[in-house]
Amino acid sequence: MTKEAETMAAELESPVGTPAPPPASTLPRPWHTILKHAALPTLTHDEQTRFNVVAAMNRFLAQQLLPRVEAAAKQSVEPALEAELGRPPTDRHEYRRALERNLTWRIWSRMRRATMEMRQQAGQLTVLRQLPGLVNTCRALNATGDQLHLDRAFSPPRYLQSLPAHLMPGGYVGERVTDDVAAGASYEIGIYATLGGQSGPASDRAGRATVAWLAEHRPGWQPRRILDLGCGMGANTLVLARAFPEADIVAIDAGAPMLRYGAARARALGVDNVRFIQGDIEQPPLAAEAPFDLIVSLMVLHETSRPAVQRIFAASFQQLAPGGLAFHLEQPPYRDKPLLEQCLRDWDGRYNNEAFWSSLHDTDLVACMREAGFAAEAVRETTANAVPVEPPPGQTLQEDYGRGGAWYVVTGEKPLAD
What we know:
The radius of gyration is 22 Å and the shape is globular. It is α/β, with parallel strands linked by helices. The chain has an eight-stranded mixed beta sheet with strand order 1-4-3-2-5-6-8-7, sandwiched between helices. It has helices at 3-13, 45-85, 92-99, 103-128, 131-142, 158-162, 182-194, 205-217, 235-243, 256-268, 306-318, 339-345, 347-351, 357-361, 365-371, and strands at 148-149, 225-229, 248-253, 274-278, 292-298, 320-330, 379-385, 406-413. The chain has a domain at 201-413: Vaccinia Virus protein VP39 (Rossmann fold), CATH 3.40.50.
C-alpha cells in the first residue's frame, strides 16, 4: 500500500473524523409534491424516483458526509497546512488546495458533482422524450395572450451560449427545435429535486422572501410598475405578480426557451399581469417601458461578470422612477467567514459551471451601487429571510450551502424629483 493510500484509509477509519450519528429524519419531500400545472412535464414512476434519489443523496451529503469533511479539515488538513506553510493559512485558495488533497473532501465533492450531473441527466431524459408535446402545449398557452415577446434578432451574451450553466446541456439559451422550451421545463423539474422541495412546491422561495421584505420595510406600498431582471422561468416573478395584482410587471431574460416556458407557465397558473421579454439585462431594451417603481434581480448577479454587474446597476438607476426602489438579492457573501466555510460556499464556482460565482462574492456591491449613481445614503445592505415551507414531521431543513434561509440584499432608492 502506498503512503497516500495508507493516509486515505486512516482518514476513513479514524474515529476523529467520524461525527456523532445525525438526528433521525425522514427523506426529503418527494418529487410528486411539486406544483402541478398544464405546462409541467409528465413524469413516469421511474422518472420521479430518479429525482427522489437525487434529493436523498443531497440529504445524505449534507447530514452525514459534510460533518466528516468538517472534522477532517479541523483535525487533519489545517494542522498539516499550517506546518507546511509555517503559519496559519490566510485565504480560501491556499486552504482549498490543501483540502483537495484530502480523501474525505474529494469523496464529498465528487458525490456532490455527481448529484448535479444526475439531476441534469434525469431532467434531459424526461423532457426530451416528450419535447414535441411540451412545445405544442406551451405554444397553445402562449397563443391565448400577449405575454411573450421574443426578439429573433437578439443574440444572447457569448458566455451564456458557450457555458452550460449548472451543468445543464445548452444552458439557459440553447435551442434544439423550433419554439424550444426544454431549458425551462428541465430547470423546473430539476431544481425541485436539488433543493429537496425546500424552496416550496413552486420553487419560489426567493420571491416570497422579497415580498415579505417589502411588506416589512415598505408596508402598504403598491408599486405600479415592476421590472424583474433575469427572470428565468418566472417562478419568483409570479410571486410578485400575485402580491401586486394591479402592477404591470415586465420580466426580462436572455433565454428564449426559459421565456417561452415561463410565459406558458404563467398562463397555466392564471397569472396575466406579467410580460416576458427577451433581452440583455445589462442594457434592457425598455426605453418605452421605463420608469419602474420597483426593479429586482433575484439570484441573478452570480450568473454574470463584475463589469456586467456594474452595467446592471447603472441600468437599474437609469430606469428607476423617482422614489423607486432597486432590490438585488443574492447568496450571502462569505469573504469574512472561516476559511473552511468559504471553501464550502465557493464550491459552485469551481465544480458547478458557475463561472462568476467566486468573483461576485468578492465584489463590494455597495460600492457598485454608488458607482452606478445611487447616493451613498440611499444604498443599504440588508437581509431577506426565507418564508419557510414547513417540513414533514421529523424532517429538518438541510444545509444548502448558502442558497437559502436568508439572502443578502443590496438596495438603492432614487430620490423624489424636486
